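subagent[fold] <- orchestrator: predict structure for attached chain, return tokens only, no commentary.
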Amino acid sequence: MTKSSFSAHPYLLGFEQLDRLVERSSRNDGYPPYNIEQNGANAYRITLAVAGFAEPDLHITVEDNQLLVRGLQPDEPDERVFLHRGIAARQFQRSFVLADGVAVLGASMENGLLHIDLDRATPESVVQTIKINPGK
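subagent[fold] -> orchestrator:
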């Protein structure tokens, strides 16, 4: 099976970065589970289920239009004996690719859920007239 590429299409010029963004976003596994809600025409909320993580264990950064959420839990003492361990206690990194103009407004925790609020600025329509220079 061949891999399709946005940059290989003859009418899409300069979209090589889009291929890289799609590649980066496809590397996520299924942990932790998350929801993405649209709260208005230009407002979004990402909610991650981070049960067992405290606020100091979570790190949120935006880097090259990529929202990164990392969870790092301190090592637990070996004194605990689990008869069943169904709550995942592992480190994670979840990434979301943000479009140009999307900004992170803030984050909050509530009942084991991490909420990240986003806003997209409405771009202004720009019309540019190109002058045709006389030929030589």
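orchestrator: received. Logging for downstream: Residues 29-120 form a domain with the Immunoglobulin-like fold (CATH 2.60.40.790). Residues 78 and 89 are 14 Å apart (CA to CA).
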